Amino acid sequence: MPDFIRLLPDSVANQIAAGEVIQRPASAVKELLENAIDAGSNQIKLILKDAGRTLIQVIDSGTGMSMTDARMCFERHATSKIKEANDLFAIRTLGFRGEALASIAAVAQVELKTRKEFDEIGTCIQIEGSRFKSQEEVSTPKGTSISAKNLFFNIPARRNFLKSDAVEFRHILEEFQRVALVHHEIELSLYHNDKPVFQLMKENLRQRIVHIFGNTMNEKLLPVELQTEISMIYGFIGKPETARKTRGEQYFFANGRFIKHPYLHHAVEQAFEELIPDSAIPSYFLFIEVDPSSIDVNIHPTKTEVNFQHGQVLYASMRSAVKHALGMFSLTPTIDFEAEQSFDFNMPANYLPKPPSITVNPDYNPFLHGKEAVPRPSTIQPNRSQWEKAFEVIQPSENSIDQTFHSDNQVFASQQMLHQEETPEQSSSSVKPIQVQNRFILVNVKSGLMILDQQKAHERILFERLLNQSSQQKTAQSNLFPPRIQLSAIDSEILNELQDEFIQLGFEINDLGKGAYVINSYPSDMPVDKIEEFIDGLLEDYKKNRTEFGGDSTARIAMTLARNLAIKAGRVLQVEEMQSIIDELFGCQIPDTAPDGSRILRILPVSEIEKLIK
Ligand code: ADP
Ligand code: MG
Fold first, then answer.
1. pLDDT digits (tens, 9 = 90+) for 449-490
2. Residue 98 Cα, ligand 1 centroid: separation in angstroms?
3. In sequence order, what DSSP letters do the residues of 369-433 get, joined into one string?
4. Kind of pairing, strands 231-238 and 284-290?
5. Does domain 206-328 bear CATH number 3.40.50.720?
6. C-alpha 212 – ligand 2 centre gap (Å)
7. Average pLDDT, the chain
8. Number of separate helices (H) and strands (E) present in the chain
9. H/E/C letters for each residue in 307-362?
10. pLDDT category, 553, cuts 50, 70, 90?
11. Closest ligand relative to 70 C-alpha
12. Which of 195, 285, 395, 512 has the maximum number of C-beta atoms within 10 A of its C-beta?
């Protein structure tokens, strides 16, 4: 009987291990940056081409490696950071498993150049898919430069599995920002396709946060600090009012490592309780220092979950640290609990929905806009027919004779309907709607009582108007002093990704560089002072629901826009406003369903009313 069991060759074993450690360019970036930090660098430069697909290079000013170490570092389980199992309980470095470089070298074409401070000459090593290519002496600055080219060049399946450059770059940015937040004492720069994205000088934490997330962050931050026997908690939280927009940055770091911790997140939320609405998430940048032996470091390199030995005590400390910070700035009494708390626009008091217009777009081709899920509206043929019966409004009592005549004479009645369609003002004057609870509109119709949800109705109207505007490429309003917005690097990426959709909806947004944008035009329904809030909300929505955004993202943006611009439940409406909403709603393609698919209206038939009263 022959034996079957064989040891896998190193190259294969490394490739398998690499699959776990290096999942995408961002994981390689994370490992290389962490190595540079562990090497005590005070200056780190990250250079990328094609979101890391073509090149990831990290140049540091750290300790560098000797000739032998340079060769050794690519071996699996080669690490200088621990010597024995006990060391695992006192880890102060980011790496310790000795897997990263072996993994990267297994799936990329790697070149390492390194020199120790007091060595005269440095070493250059080339290694491709775990195969050693060359080692020679080079003159190179003190420190280490590692470049990984053509990631997954030898595993086509993985390479093809990578997402678009925009998505991969965002993952990289996320890793870069996490490192940058912890190590504000290090000078860090990032270049993508030869363009500088970040050039961060040595600075304090507050400055670092502001330089990463934009100048507007500065006035939003409240410092947090709490020292207890088992932990030190410090950092910043966003003021409660900044959580209103639902947009937030949430960062926990434990002993200098980014972590995700739902339990501690809950502690922060608890501290904010009642200061922000349920739907909003507070921003925070919180650092936790504990004894390394009280934290489970034996975590997977790509996982961000950790276990704390004193989880409950830490929860309580976290909560009181945040509460204290909020209290210190005596924000509590200034918060208006009753105020409208959602990401929300209040219309100017004199705002009136626009009367419907019948516009014909001869070039409109419904087949050019796929996706049945989101119907493309058009006002070419107002969808009256199916609503005609329901909408036959009972005529005012003063012309009761006419009323009898009309209803007896079907031909006349329908002619009048057509007439009404062209001149909505006339039809509205006979509608006489009333508002209930500042939320619903009641209209007396022939078959009974029609009940409309005012907010949803207005969402539908705006949604169709926006999309219609887009399909006709109409430009919207522009402003003598166009508004400007400032975005974080990740948000800029998303905005760039959605440029086409924004243009379709009547936005013209110009990139001024460094996250600054000027909005040269915007949809006519949009109040200028709400633009920034809208874009913030939209980007947040996009980040949370990226997958749902697939397909027709123009419609999705129109939907978000409509939701935010629509008059809200709770808003008192004048009779003319209600009339205008009703008229315009029935000029819509789908008057009974809100853009999100929920119901806008119902008719309570007379027979039901009779039953109710009996
Ligand atoms: P780990 O970081 O878990 O030890 P790595 O595979 O990332 O494992 O690195 C292996 C070893 O190579 C490290 O322990 C360190 O000694 C050395 N090394 C890696 N990158 C650098 C660097 N940028 N500067 C100096 N030494 C480095
Ligand atoms: Mg490492």
1. 889 999 999 999 988 888 877 555 444 566 677 888 888 888
2. 7
3. S--SSSPPP-SSS---HHHHHHH-BPPPGGGHHHHHHHHH-HHHHHHHHHHHHH-HHHHHHTT--
4. antiparallel
5. no
6. 24
7. 79
8. 21, 21
9. CECCHHHHHHHHHHHHHHHHHHCCCHHHCCCCCCCCCCCCCCCCCCCCCCCCCCCC
10. confident
11. 1
12. 285
SS3 224: strand
8-state DSSP, 140:
-
Q: Hey, what CATH topology would domain 454-585 get?
A: Ribosomal Protein S8; Chain: A, domain 1 (3.30.1370)
Same fold, 10-202 and 206-328: no
The two tokens of residue 249 are 């940055």
- The verdict on the CB of residue 80 being under 6 Å from ligand 1 is yes
Kindly list the protein residues that place their beta carbon closer than 5 angstroms to ligand 2, a single-atom ion. Answer: 35, 95, 100
Indicate if the alpha-carbon torsion angle 401, 404, 407, 412 is positive or negative: negative
Q: Beta 484-486 vs 516-522: how paired, if at all? A: antiparallel
Taking only the tens place, the pLDDT of each residue in 216-262 is 788 889 999 999 999 999 999 998 877 755 456 899 999 998 998 88
CB 240 within 8 A of CB 337: no
State the distance between the two ends of the chain, measured CA to CA, in whole angstroms: 92
β partners of residue 609? none
3-class state of residue 266 by DSSP: helix
| Backbone phi, psi, residue 291, to 5° | -60, 125
What's the rounded Cα separation, in Å, for the pair 16 and 28?
15
100 alpha carbon to ligand 2 midpoint, in Å?
Answer: 5
The domain spans of the chain are 10-202, 206-328, 454-585
Angle between helix 165-182 and 205-213 (nearest 10):
170
What one-letter code names the amino acid at 108? A
CA distance 510 to 516: 9
Residue 435 Cβ contacting ligand 1 at under 6 Å: no
Ligand 1 centroid to 179 CA: how many Å?
17
Sign of CA dihedral 520, 522, 528, 531: negative
